[in-house]
Amino acid sequence: MALIVQKYGGTSVGDADRIRAVADRVAETYKAGNQVVVVVSAMGDSTDRLVELAAAVSGGRHPREMDMLLTAGERISMALLAMAIRDHGVEAMSLTGSQAGILTDTSHGEAKIRDIRAIRVREGLDLGRVVIVAGFQGVSPDTKEITTLGRGGSDATAVAMAAFLEADVCEIYTDVDGVFTADPRVVPESRKLDQISFEEMLELAAAGAGVLMMRSVEFARRVNVPLHVRSSFHGGEGTWVKENTMEDAAVTGVAHDLSEVKLMVQNVPDRPGVASALFAPLSDAGVNVDMIVQNTSHDGLTDISFTVAKADADQALALAEEAARDLGAGGVTLDGSIAKISVVGAGMRTHPGIAARMFGVLADAGINIAMISTSAIRVSCVVAGEEAERAVRLLHLAFDPPFEPTEEA
Ligand code: ADP
Ligand code: ASP
Ligand code: MG
């Protein structure tokens, strides 16, 4: 008997028929003699609808109430799925994140899982039940408040459950067949990868490949829980995300990210302490800065550009303007239409020239690069937002991932 954690994303439980289809699969897995824990997302795009509803009702920031609101989405799908599973003659029980022992820190909207005390999940399994856990939510033992784990957070719930229960497998069911060499909705000729290392998946997720939430991959790597990303529409094999894979392609995938904005602080005096004065307030406010570029200085003045999440744009702009005033710098401009395009591959370590080739492809297409950043296994370029899809397609065509260069290449 195996213990299987199955996570179903929003599309996979998008309507009554889809919920019944998921119930069929869960019941089948259970009747085959396995213990099954199911983690569910909210139905379809209902989380987005709730966010819109909140904005229509109030312009204020209400982090606690937002979490109360958004966690309702997963409560709906978990209860409906439990009912549909019971129709198969299988005992099923739904639990909120709090009931399932997902203990988090206090930060509303992007809480991190601190501990897992899935006692009630264990009890349910011991009683022979299928246990359904609401994804994306937990509770802070410090404040006793309900929290959410950030968008896409049901993936993290699934990994947490799998880790605590020492599950045999953690299956992430979604609306594509697995992890592809690029977003299959943008690059039709992208391919499904049979396997990918945690390291590469982490970089792809950080680069915008939304198929897995980045923090869930980080977590899975830390606790060494292999993930099987697969389609909820059919039973075919998906992609295994695990510690080590056989091949190290120079380019395993191409990703794009439209979720950031670029700020530029102009005419900053070029002297020690300036970067600290600009970025410390952002960090103190919990604003994550992704890329940073400082230009060469002219006449003792320089421009500093950086990117942050769209959601943090207003706050980052206000803080940067304040810092610019204190530093005697010029104004701050905000560009809301940018895209970060990345190529990722563990084989890059041993195959130089990938960055140069990427720049060449973009140059040939007349696509201007505004910023560049790299890690050992990733090269990212910021380009104009409207060029995102063309850039991804051209890079995919040029590198043909999973690309393993020959000696001459
Ligand atoms: P779920 O609701 O199941 O969590 P998501 O929408 O979060 O589903 O993630 C699946 C989506 O991720 C796909 O529909 C696809 O458009 C997108 N995606 C982006 N990059 C990739 C990639 N490299 N491989 C597969 N899917 C990707
Ligand atoms: N429902 C949440 C979201 O849309 C969590 C998830 O689906 O993973 O982000
Ligand atoms: Mg998701």
Please give a structural write-up:
There is one protein chain. With 409 residues, the chain is of the alpha/beta class. 34% of the residues lie in helices and 26% in strands. The protein has 11 helices and 20 strands. The chain has an 8-stranded mixed beta sheet with strand order 3-6-2-1-9-11-12-10, sandwiched between helices. A 4-stranded antiparallel beta sheet has the order 13-18-20-19, sandwiched between helices. A 4-stranded antiparallel beta sheet has the order 15-16-14-17, with helices on one face. Strand 7 and strand 8 form a beta hairpin. Helix 5 (154-165) runs parallel beside helix 7 (214-223) and helix 6 packs antiparallel against helix 7 (214-223). The radius of gyration is 23 Å and the shape is globular.
What attributes characterize this protein structure?
alpha/beta, binds aspartic acid, binds adenosine-5'-diphosphate
Q: Brief description of this entry?
A:
By secondary structure, this protein is an alpha/beta fold. Helices cover 34% and strands 26% of the residues. Helix 2 (46-57) packs antiparallel against helix 3.
Coarse morphology: globular
Give the N-to-C terminal Cα separation.
49 Å
Question: Order of strands across the widest beta sheet?
Answer: 3-6-2-1-9-11-12-10
Share of helix, binned: 25-40%
Structural class: alpha/beta
What's the count of strands? 20
Mean pLDDT: 96
How many helices? 11
